[in-house]
């Protein structure tokens, strides 16, 4: 079977590798370098316990106050509000208790075995060198802040990730990089991180080629469709025939999928990071600073501070306020971290209103989607790729893919 995969982020590369390993003749189409966008700019953490929807009732209640608080990790370019409001209203319909439970169960399927999924993908390849097992730490200012997060921690425990509470002087004994502004930790085992996300995805793309796949460096412009079936891809003006096409192109997926009649409500969650050359003052494992909702991760080229959620579309450049928040919060949590060495980045995380990705075939067209992972793209990429490859190649996956199907958007 000849298959094209459009998009060489972690989801696309993972899909291409597993399709190739299951016997397909696979072409990976990417105009730039593999792993150069959101897959490069993320926090690097394998967030196996990230089983809460991005937007639930509690988050919606807090949102107005957060938008007015310079130290809250939610930002909005107000001129963009009229455009994003319909998406936000649609997302609010999924904030009820029953929907949150349904979505959480579907997220568990994709993320809870993230470390093992990455190991299965990368084992024996150059990419394996970037993969680390580690604790994942939530750092709180004090016991009051820890207690306020009890419901979220309980959800993680029910998903298989109980935590050890550390407080007082033991905080700095656990990780000397943490300053006196951190008074309590919730430490979870069985997580991990990628020490250089961009290099990791690049190495996986090289693995794909070494295993017999083809990388076509071109911009996918259109799909070739006839009688509701996909027959190929037009990229940089050249048409090539394929029996199946997988669209994993992040925000660029929307226009391609629209050609098959799917109006995908894909929005951008703008994420930010600061990359510091200093490692001495940073944590020894991924640490979520709860007050700023960002993660500090040790990497091969320094410490990365990443997170923040901003709605602002694709046309506006980076805002200054998110970088300021990262600097202020990091200075409190890690007082010996040299923030003057920071390199700034802003990128786009593709998001769907029910906090779940699109994963599956669009009707019976031979066109498949793999997009919309919000903030868990790196975490869930390998599992997504394997499930998609198994389903596309006619092997029944051992999980129900219905929660991720295109028919929830009125198609298929």
TrEMBL record:
SUPFAM superfamilies, A to Z: FAD-linked reductases, C-terminal domain, FAD/NAD(P)-binding domain
GO CC, any one term: cytoplasm
A Pfam family matched in the record: DAO
Coiled coil spans: none
Domain FAD dependent oxidoreductase, first and last residues per copy: 2-390
Record GO terms (molecular function): oxidoreductase activity
Gene3D superfamilies reported for this sequence: D-Amino Acid Oxidase, subunit A, domain 2 (3.30.9.10), FAD/NAD(P)-binding domain (3.50.50.60)
Key words, A-Z: Oxidoreductase
Record-linked InterPro entries: FAD-dep_OxRdtase, FAD/NAD-bd_sf
Name of the protein: D-amino-acid dehydrogenase
Organism: Roseivivax halotolerans
Lineage: Bacteria, Pseudomonadati, Pseudomonadota, Alphaproteobacteria, Rhodobacterales
């Amino acid at each position: 079977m000849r298959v094209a995969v459009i998009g060489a982020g972690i989801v696309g590369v993972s899909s291409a590798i597993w399709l190739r390993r299951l016997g397909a003749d696979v072409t990976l189409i990417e105009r730039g370098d593999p792993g150069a966008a959101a897959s490069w700019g993320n926090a690097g953490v394998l967030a196996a316990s990230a089983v809460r929807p991005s937007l639930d009732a509690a988050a919606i209640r807090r949102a107005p106050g957060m938008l007015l608080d310079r130290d809250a990790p939610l930002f909005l370019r107000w001129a963009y509000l009229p455009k994003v409001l319909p998406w936000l209203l649609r997302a609010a319909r999924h904030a009820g208790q029953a929907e949150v439970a349904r979505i959480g169960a579907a997220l568990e399927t994709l993320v809870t075995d993230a470390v093992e999924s990455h190991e299965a993908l990368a084992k024996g390849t150059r990419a394996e060198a970037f993969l680390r097992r580690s604790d994942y730490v939530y750092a709180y200012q004090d016991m009051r802040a820890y207690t306020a997060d009890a419901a979220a921690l309980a959800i993680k425990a029910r998903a298989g990730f109980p935590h050890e509470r550390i407080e007082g002087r033991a905080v700095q004994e656990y990780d000397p990089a943490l300053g006196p502004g951190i008074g309590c930790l919730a430490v979870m085992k069985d997580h991990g991180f990628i020490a250089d996300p961009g290099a990791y995805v690049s190495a996986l793309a090289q693995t794909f080629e070494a295993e017999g796949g083809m990388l076509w460096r071109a911009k996918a412009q259109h799909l070739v469709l006839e009688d509701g079936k996909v027959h190929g891809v037009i990229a940089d003006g050249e048409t090539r025939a394929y029996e199946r096409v997988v669209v994993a192109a992040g925000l660029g997926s929307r226009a391609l999928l629209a050609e098959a009649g799917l109006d995908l409500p894909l929005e951008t969650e703008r994420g930010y990071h600061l990359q510091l050359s200093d490692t001495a003052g940073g944590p020894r494992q991924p640490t979520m600073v709860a007050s700023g909702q960002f993660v500090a991760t040790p990497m091969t080229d320094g410490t990365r501070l990443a997170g923040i959620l901003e709605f602002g579309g694709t046309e506006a450049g980076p805002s200054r306020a998110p970088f300021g928040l990262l600097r202020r919060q990091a200075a409190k949590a890690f007082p010996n971290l040299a923030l003057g060495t920071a390199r700034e980045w802003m990128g786009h995380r593709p998001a769907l209103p029910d906090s779940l990705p699109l994963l599956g075939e669009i009707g019976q067209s031979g066109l498949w989607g793999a997009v919309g992972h919000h903030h868990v793209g790196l975490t869930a990429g390998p599992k997504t790729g394997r499930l998609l490859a198994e389903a596309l190649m006619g092997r029944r996956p051992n999980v129900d893919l219905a929660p991720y199907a295109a028919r929830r958007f009125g198609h298929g």
